[in-house]
Records
---
Amino acid sequence: MKKIALIGMPNSGKSTFFNSISGASARIANWSGVTVDVESVRTLIFGEIVELIDLPGVYSLHSGSDDEVVVHEFLKNNQIDEIFFILNSTQIDRQIILATELLNMGFNLRILCNMHDEAKKNGIKIHFEKLQNRLQVPIHPISAKFKEGYEFLSKKQELKKTKEKSKKFSESEIKNYVSFPRTLDTSTTEKLDKFFLHPYLGLPIFFITLFFLFQIIYGVAEPIQDLLGGVFDYFGGLLQSNLNPWLPNLLSSFVYDGIYLGITTVLTFVPVIVIFFLMMSFIENSGYLSRAAFVMDRMMEKMGLDGRSFVMILFGFGCNVPALMGTKIMRSKSIRYLSMLIIPFSLCSARLQVFLFFTAIFFEPRIGGLILFLMYIISFLLILFTAIIFKKDQADNESVLIEMPAYQLPTLRQNMLTASHEVKHFLTRASKFILGGVIVVWLLTNVYISPELSVADSIGKALNPIFDPIGINDKLIIALIFGFIAKEIVIGALAVIFSGNDSTLPDLLFNYITWQQAISFMIFTLIYTPCLSTIAVIKNQSKSKKLVLTSLIWSLLLAWVISFVTYQSLLFLY
Amino acid sequence: MQKSQIRLLSELSQNSFATIVEIDHQPSFTLKAAALGLKINKTVCVLHKSNNGPICIKVNTSSFMIRAIDAAKIKVIPQ
């Protein structure tokens, strides 16, 4: 099978192109010489099935960043039939240089001039035929955002090459093939930047944007979640009534209380996750993320970090795992290690479902958004605090040069593709743990070591002296233990632990614990180790056992202390 | 070129234009900067300056964020 590698600079629209081709069917594959995950998809190109491989975005092949090493090693160790080099047409003057580097290395290249529509709108005129003849490679104008110009994929057109060997392409030559207007129309971006990058207003605007973002997630997702919960309850009732007559009680309880309740309780949070990722991909595709890095850089610099760490923290709000993986872009070991210590405090979507669940039970809907926002503030303060505590010597602070792409209004399709990619990742990860997790929780709660004491009860009782001062009692302790494997299990575990009653889980919890205990539980869940996967990624990325241990011990210690202070203060005040 | 005209990129005020005459930085920075179009003889425009924070600059068709400490290693002649 032919292999086509997709290469381009960051912000060239490479991922949009790849997502538009792959949909949700991309897979991670192992490639010779490459130690990081590289996605690929088998798809129909030029009338045959080929493997299209999405390589990390790079600015050049020689500056030695990790991503550049990945691309370099990949090209060195794997047989590639063709390279699709994707460039941003509005920046063709500088991006074409990387294409010529690849050409000089002898690769079979095809250049895709993405965002051709934008370039045209900005008055940039590319003389494709002349440039094609000069470089001796096929060049296609496309718009990945609108999936336009993809006709070339259906039938391969070979370029009639001239015999003479072309001389090296120099940057100054580009003016012979591309006409730029005297001034580029970037007024919209500049107008918006005056607002978003304002020296005084930039930061408050950023926090207000975040606040509204979470209000929208909460406001839109909750009714859908309720509806889905109702549907699952209905079918659960049907399942129970059908199981009871012909299955022994214990087996019926295993199927309904263990598997069905555990899984469906977690599934009701899928709408929240979908909406969260839709909003995140909107912000990412709009170009605002680099502005967030700009306004936050000064604060991050004081903590020994940079704006990019902040962007990773933002990604961590989706899932800590890809955010931790993203720290590889930082060349400085101290910044990378520090980022790995703080990212697990980002309130990920798995923890979000726990907070949504508890907020809906213990607080009125009108303050639900505020409680959620407060959890994000606590998460952010913990990030700051941890960074300050573990801040290393700033001497090896690496340089910061971050591209700020023009603002774009992402299309719904573009957002859906990015979001579906992330949701698929979340569900794949969650499904690994949920089924096994809820079965183990059911076993622990249904296997008795004495007539009145289950295994779960005995574990809860043994740990009670540690958790009692923070208001977390036996049953919640079990949920926390399973939350260590993955936070996606916490609600499912609670559903299994509290099963066997006629009342619903929210009613049982409301009667079982006080709102102060609920707050303490939420804070502990926020702070202690997010999941086993994050630990595995920290270990893989850092190759440092010390860092893994520091992350584990620090988060557990901090979780206990803050929960203790919060719980005891709330008891004292109310 | 007169030496007295040379200033640091970090010293330029917002909306000012200058020509880059020297980049006195680590090779890794210089290589990445060059790939982004930030190199000697190029015209740079300071788009935004934050309070003691990074600077937003524009070279050719691209805008970047650069820290003041890094901008202080780039010598320019204001236009």
---
Amino acid sequence: MRLSSPNLTHNCLRIALFTLSLLLISLNAPLAQDAETAPDTAVVNTEPAADAAILAPLPAANVIAKDLPNDKGGAVLVSWELSPDDDGNGKVSGYLVQRSESKDGPFETAGNAVRGATKFTDNKTDDDKVYFYKVAAYFEYLDAADEKIRITSAATVTGPVQSSAQWFNMNRLYVLLFMLFVAGAIIFYIEKAKKGEEIYIRKIAGIDAVDEAVGRATEMGKKIFYIPGIQDMNDVQTIASIAILGRVAQMAAEYDTWLEVPVSKSMVLVTAREAMKEAYTKVGRPDALQDAQVHYLTDDQFGYAAAIDGMIVREKPATIFYMGAFFAESLILAETGNSVGAIQIAGTAMPAQLPFFVAACDYTLIGEELFAASAYLSREPRQLGSLKGQDMGKGLFILCIIVGVILATFDIWDMSVIFVSR
Amino acid sequence: MEMISIWIAAILTLGIFSFLYKDNPLYKACEALFVGVSAAYWAIVFYFDNIYKKFYEGAVTADEPDYFLWIGAILGLLFLTRLIPKIGWVSRWPMALIVGATAGLWMVGYFVSNAMNQIGSTISGIIVYDTATGFVAWGETFGSLVILVGVLSGLVYFFFSKEHKGVFGATAKVGTWFLMVTFGASFGYTVMSRMSLLIGRVDFLLGDWLGILR
């Protein structure tokens, strides 16, 4: 890029003055005061204003303040064009964003933006108030006494602007569309299943083994332990676990096998008891259920693990289920169960714990298999239709990935923008 | 006093470690102590955090009481109806609310983070060029290809309504391999972090307790 000669002269002069001022600062030389040469200039740790005359960067241009779109209110987006001095030569340290409820001020600091930034979101606005903003580029340096000196450029006021909430986050429009597709597919296949159409579900070894595991405990005359994880009912894995517990409890009730469920959360205790009660009632044996079958241990993660380890080695259950959300206790539990020769079936969607269950258990339900288990075990048309509908969603995603990758490879269109949520 | 604390902690640590040999009375004592103390501790934490600080100070003694907290309090009380068999069924209401609200709240969150964002991250050009030279960066290109194949085959593995045979089955098999390799890497990484926990306890026993390590 060619510079016109007046610009060249101007820039050379500025660079010379900038270098000179740094030299003077390093020599700790006193600087002359001339406040008049620094219009609308704020100096932190008020230093001689001549500094401002020499070092004040050129201001940011075209400052615009507008309501932040697609939000719940309480935020204003301020944008600007970079100061001509913000060219990577260190003449601009950042931008000071100030706001006021009146055009004439007084202005308070809304925040700072780093050099090179062209926008700032003020997240602390009141939707009932009107604001004016101004943005100034600033240069910061340490003086001889190691005190930070900030010299700001001139700044023009922009506004008024008022923040407001939006009913719809249009950035998530594609999320809505994809969810509608998946939900539509689920409803469609549920209806089909209800009409008697057979829905094929592939074999899932871990779930097929549930029958075998309950039967084994019955034959051996030993207990079944069901561990629903250490999360509360506000975790979908725990909800899925309780749904599976209902199916396991039904089998245990049919075979008259003792099923014990030690829990670590009071809410899970209540829900598990309800699920067990329903299961035992369904097979006509409500009296066989005892409160002691579902019992609370402790909320503490390792206290819970220590207690279950003790129970496992003392009572030597024939079968242990680990279904739900697990953390560091997963291997402690599964290894102890393995040591007493119990048949173990685990299921979790915690990626970090799956390897431990795969290593120490006989069968492991990986991620989504945990959520599919309930449908698979129950064979209810409604749940099977739901599984099929979800598969249609996965099919759509596979198609999108293939098309998106092809478009991106040939540099036609970056399709990822519709998937990345903002 | 500090010495007593260290001795108690050391004995309890050894008591828990003794389980590695076999179940024994010391482990049983440590286990009972651990379970009892932690259950009591959490009961107090929940009481102060939720009932006292959140509800009592927020809805009863606050200058501007938050009356919405009463809804939570009433739902909490409904749980106690289980103690009265005749109206025990009422306790299902708060339970149903929690399960339903959880499913609803997480639906969008999971869909965005576990599906949409993952797909968005997978979609990129397979052929990656070196920005400096303009030539194909073979390493990065291979990496993007591995991610693409891993994601697609992984998704195929989690298809439940189609039999895994033929090309579909082979793709699912590739997905299984990707999962197992990932699990192996994760296993090694996590075991190393657990080792640091063990080192921490051994450091306590040999350093703080026995004073062998300085």
---
Amino acid sequence: MKRLLHLSLSTAAVLGIFAVAVKTPSVAAQDVPNCGTEPITVRGYFETGFDLPFRLTEEFSVQYPNVTWDISQDQFANLINATPRLLSGDNPPDLIRLPTLVSFATQGLVMNLDTYAEAFGWNDWPVPQLNQNRVAEDGTRGAGSLYAMGLNYSLTGIFYNREQAEQIGMTEPPATLAEFEALLAAAKEADLLPIMQWGSARSGMGLAFPLQALMASVGPVGPINDWIFQTPGATIDTPENLVAAQHLQDWITNGYFPEDINAIEYTDAQARFGAGEGVFIFNGDWQNAGYDASMPGNVGFFLMPPAEEGGSPAAMSAPLTFGIAANAVNADCAAFFLNWVATNEVARQIGVDVGGSNPGGPSGLEMPPVAEGSITNETLAAGPVVGEAGTSMDFIANATSAIFAQGWTPELQEMVGGLQDAAGLLQAVQAEYELQLSE
Amino acid sequence: MTTSDNRPAALAASRPTTKSKNARREAIIGWLFVLPALLMYAMFVLLPLLMSIQYSFFRWNGIGPMTWVGFDNYTRVLSDPDLLGTILNSFRLVFFFSFIPVALGLVVASVMHRMATGRLGAVSRTVLFLPQIIPLVAAGIIWGWLLALPGLINELLEAVGLSALTRAWLGDFTWALPAVGLIGVWVLLGFCTVLLWTGMSKLDPALYESARIDGASWFNEFISITVPLLRNEIGVCLTVTVIAALAAFDIVYISTAGGPGNATAVPGIQIYILAFTEQRIGPASALAVILTLLVLVIIIPIQRLNREIK
């Protein structure tokens, strides 16, 4: 679940960094909020299992020795549950990993960052980067005041096992959905597992990845983002999405996924893919370091191809969202840190090396170098493709805080078990969505 | 301290006797001993219970203002087929968490009582009781591995030629609930066995001796002596295990988190998701109150039956 939820907002933008004209950020050096020179302790609340924020804070203290960190951490599921109470408590963390944004922003629990955006010149950064973390007064996302920043901007797609892909005759990534489906059939024919994916309720149903990729391959991304951003009247139950869900159901009945998918945890799926089980896996660039380690030189990446020849590939992409508590004691220092992460050379290098994703920041900054042979080269190269096409999406699991646990996961598991069909899946999830929004 | 000298005359006239004075003093001392535990109980059991009842009548996200909604949350919970399905699942779990451990526990304890009296008995009791002291989180993870498709249980089935039966037990719509139940049997069997064995050790051996002289078999002894005389212990076992089944959370959350679909979803899991993931404290509290009532409705007859038989 946590990986899925990692993807919050759209990245059409994030990656739009590359498409936007080079512009130097204008930051007045002396007036901007900072961490001062007196010793201070900044409190953080991070997600367990993700090194990036921890490594960044370590480096930050090296560069600014007066700052020490007091960091608590939790697994993602616990993080979701504890965040409202932590933010509304007497002593909230200064810097916090935000699993979802809208409810905390509308409840006044996270700080409005507009003043900082002004002071640091964030408003001059490529527009979509920030828009993903904006919330309007009516609770719609995508425009309005800024409530969070991304530590980096992840991208999803299809990773593949090079040796096995060669075995089924894949010489270059498929250009259309039909070509991709032919490869899946070829893999099945060759007695290989076509797609490794996770699907236990504990990890959260990983079939949401291929489903959303199919949705964006078959139809436009706009309505999907509307649904995720809770635009009034938005529905997931559209004719295009029905076609997408039918493709997924076919994949399931064709035996393209492991038969025990409903019991596979996220980590087990990665281990099994790394050990050679599965030609393809739908996942995001946060797993890059893991794939580099488990299958060095043998892993490739491509974006989900469009259904129509000559169409644009689409991807789920989202910032690793961090915010500042509304009552934070060291808000200035936390904001300074968020700015530093995107602009400091060492920090950006850590962002790429450890996080595996685009570090964002002002346009015109060079992308930090990546080790030769690392899969990160391929995922970073794929970013601008989606950025230019404007086909990035937030994740359907992030539409509401419980839509994943109460909607997608059980319904997709039932589809695997033959108890749910494509139409029923979309209807059930839409009903759950409306129920949750009515609360 | 008040002395008798400055008491009003009327009170002085009805001054209690030394005996009852002592009794009262003892009662006060008794209460003082109980007080710390009572305070804790009030703070961590009674108060949350009352607060849950209060919340169940409100619409509240846990942070903002609370809105009175009367019985809305209850009607909502009782009309949601998914939530009612979780209650049905918890009744299915009663079979695994309660009936099997108690029945099997009786047999195992009886065999131990009769045959394994020395070191062997002590060792087997320890082994059976071990699941009680292993943290359930660790146990749940280990069971997850054992029951996985590439896990030991499927390997064993394959080794004995039953490869047709292999499956991802915790991911199978038909078998996930029995598989979770099996973990419950593993956890609770030791508890029941040790409790029942202790009860058996207190039974008068003369009863068994006379039965044996009359030519009673092990089975006859078991049915006519052991089970009737252990009614009290069986009652305790049933009470504890039925509560464990109806209020199950940890075993289910660690092994399947309610999946696949809602095949193993129990009220405990739904309460957790409603309250913490969805921030819908009202319906979560209403479901919790309903669950508490349900447990009472089932446990009170067991208790009463137990008492009447005694």
---
Amino acid sequence: MNLLTATTRYYLLLALFLFVGGSLGLYHGINWALRTEVGEQLADRRRELLAKAQANELPSVSQLAILLDISRTPRPLGFRDTVLLDRTENEMVPHRQLTFPLVVRGEGPVWVSLRKSLVETEDLLGVVLAVMVAVLALLLAGMVGLNRWLSARLWAPFRHTLAALRGYNLQQHQPLALPAPAVAEFAELNQALNGFSQRLVADYQSLREFTANAAHETQTPLAIMQAQLEQLLQVPALAEDPAAAPLVADLYRGTLRLSRLHQALSLLSKIENRQFAEAQPVRLDELLTERMAQLEPLFDARELRYGLDIAQAPVVVLMHPGLADSLLQNLLQNAVRHNVRGGALMATLTRHELKVSNTGPATPGDPARFFERFRKHNAASDSPGLGLSIVQQICAHYGFGLSYKLTEHGTRHTLRVTLPAAVGTAAPAVLSASD
Amino acid sequence: MAPLFMKILLVEDEAALRTALAGSLRQNGYVVDEAAGFAQAHEKIELYKYDCVLLDLTLPDGSGLDLLRALKAEGSAAGVLIITARDALDDKIAGLDLGADDYLIKPFHLSELNARVRAIIRRRQFNGQQQITFRDLLVLPELAEVHVRGELLVLTKKEYDLLLYLLANPGRVLTKEAIAEHLCGDAVDAADSFDFIYTHLKNLRKKLQEKGVENYIRTMYGVGYKLSHE
């Protein structure tokens, strides 16, 4: 329900109440006025008859009885409503009746009933009600029509703003440039949103710069720490003290982990900042073969059965070679890390997709969250849990599809990267689409 | 030990890192000249002849790539090993295109640096014809053969790589992490790979033992391994 419909609904509800109340009031008012009028007319005739009786101008009762309803026995006095048969229309018609005693000279009292039809009154009321209902209907139709017109015209700037907000992406580093529409409220809204997005872009920009600078500045001290610790391990005195060397080795290991984490994070931020502009044709099949061969000792150590299936060669994908390498390494390492001893690992590459599957215990939780940063299945793991985040960022950067599936009773995990359909000449179009 | 009197120019602007690298190289028997920036390095390559230049690409007063161009323009025979930050992948590619022999991404293991320098010098100076001798071992790199007291020692590819890596760092403690990265690529998480290092080392030791040489490879508890001189 949109805002206009909602307000219109309340308007219509109010109008309905007012119309019902007004119609009832009008009905009773007119009814009362008409009956009073009829009563007055009857009272006038009574006065006239009584005056004639006083002046002794009335004819005899038998003559009067032709014109009036006269009874020699007493009748209840005063105004009454009654129904009489209208002979011409052959239906019962409501009448107002006034009964009073009349003394005709020499003939004693008689009771006279004067009557007047109320049928015109009812017709009038009918017309009044019909008019009211018609106006109500017109109002309703008018409201609906106005609503449509207004929502098309008056709310157009609002819709435009909404569409701009929906399509807004901070990664494009552009503030919103919304126009100032004629309606003051919308103009204010757009102004506020423009200001908001400018602040957002500025903050994001400074955050990115900070991250990039921090990353760059951390790199050198890390390299120094690592080199000096490695030199410290060579000090002969260390070999004489069996307790000291493992301490230094732990420090060294910690430095390595830190520098790995640092590398992964700066890679992620570089992808997000689109600093890997130039793509070039990469032989994914060759790269995959090479990476698999490099990891073979690792597979052997874990007693993994592994297989590589390249259905069609060559598989050429347009991307940054460094990112292609990172994509494959992270996929393969993920498949090793979450594998079980004596398990299996399979890499399949066609022109359309790259699939890496591995055996492993079923992992609890929502698969969509596996791609989150610092997501670990095992909290004690040495890995910072950034591998799949990097995979996801690379896929998003190049517009590749990425999906996760758990099959074979929850023991086989498959990550599937869908490669762009067209390679070679059509590839630049794919790239620009991902931008 | 490194071939005698091999001269290396180390171009690195971070003093602490430069000291550590130079220290490690000197321990391996190289003669090391240090340069803290572009101008200093440029002067040195004009004046002296080096066997190998370790070149950091980001220098405060100039680009390492320009230094590389200057070296190549002079027709220098020196091998060039580029040291680069990870976020400068494209510089690395440009460096290799300009004729650098190899590259290392910061931060790296000093033992890896030794192995790379040694490989570059061997390729450059001896066209790969050099023999490596260590105690009773004789390695012929161009044939990928290892002899123990004249007897051929049959090794797998990984065992051979491991032995060469140890031989490039005689007397140095090699961390398990450095060995893992050397054998499996730098993206491998070291913790994942200790199993296989252990396996390969065990096999290598056994094969050496069968040929009658023992205690060449010492285990440094909690740290790594060392190729021992005694």
